Amino acid sequence: MSQGVPVPEHEQRQITDEQFHDATLIWNYHQMGHEQRPCSAAIGLGSHDLGVATAAADLYRAGLFPVVVFSGGNSPTTRARFPRGEAVHYREHALSLGVPDEAILVEPKAANTGQNITFSRELLAEAGIAVESLLLISKPYMERRSYATCRKLWPEAEVVCASEPLELDDYIKSIGDEKLVVDMLVGDLQRVIEYPKLGFAVEQDVPGDVYDAYKRLLGAGFDSRLISS
Question: Are 138 and 146 in contact (CB under 8 A)?
Answer without folding.
Answer: yes
